[in-house]
Amino acid sequence: MKKTDFYDVVVVGAGPAGLQAAIHASRKKVSVLVLGKAHKSSLFRAHVENMVSLFNTTGKAMLETGRRQAKNFGSEFMDEDILKITADDGRFELETEGGNRLACKTLILATGTARNKLRVKGEKELVGKGVSYCVDCDGNFYRGEEVTVVGSESAAADGALTLAEIAGKVHLICDDLKVSEALLAKLDNSQVVVHQGAKVKEISGKEEVNTIVLDDGTILSTSGVFIELGAKGLMELATSLGVVLDDTMRFIQADKAQSTNVSGIFAAGDICGPPWQVAKAVGEGCVAGINAADYAKKL
Known about the structure:
Blueprint lengths: L3 E9 L3 H12 L4 E4 L11 E2 L8 E2 H14 L3 E3 L3 E7 L2 E6 L4 E9 L21 E2 L2 H4 L8 E4 L3 H11 L5 E5 L6 H8 L4 E4 L3 E5 L6 E4 L4 E3 L2 E4 L6 H8 L23 E3 L10 H21 L1
Parallel strand pairs: 1-2, 1-8, 2-5, 8-17, 9-16, 10-11, 10-16, 11-12
Antiparallel strand pairs: 3-4, 6-7, 7-8, 13-14, 14-15
């Protein structure tokens, strides 16, 4: 682990809400760090024609411009996914996929809400019966059992390592493993069985998951299948911090100041629910950035 760096405000998410939050927080003369990867934003591949004063532009161009603006006002950037966030004695501590340790007074969650699915046979039918999208939420139900994690990025690798301390045998199914050297080293030194270059073809079971079938015909016995595609999502991060979600358990509840029920944690953008519009994300990011900076200054 590297030394812990401290910031007034850490923004988790490098999309339009996160960038706007960083711009307004930085203008308040507090130290700001933005975590995340721009190409993971739903805006990155979008074509934008309904944002005021912008006509016929690309999401990629908007994100690149927003990043330059935030940097110009003093924001720092770290293009890494978050693995863990904990609250400790009035501050928040974070660990990134690259092994970086960070701490901050105030946190802004702007990660979006995408929950990627495998879309294979048996997945939909067995959700809640062995198929899960959250290791941190459901891992403890599989103590001593044989389980499988599916995914090629940081959430899957970290989930497999977490389950290695809880479950019996852990399989990691990954088409092309794209994780930091730090995470890769942890996997190499663990008991996780990595199936590199493999894909899940089917999840099988009647009342609960029993097996998975890989694209080469291999059949693996498993009690649980954890689908972790991409970076750590809303459910994992929010659950670990005690942030209240709405009745659908899909979105964060935030007030007009973009404050959550946890002091010092703000939220903005798609993570707070529809409509899925850049204008809404930017507006909420502005409010969250201003109020997060003011909160940090009061501390």
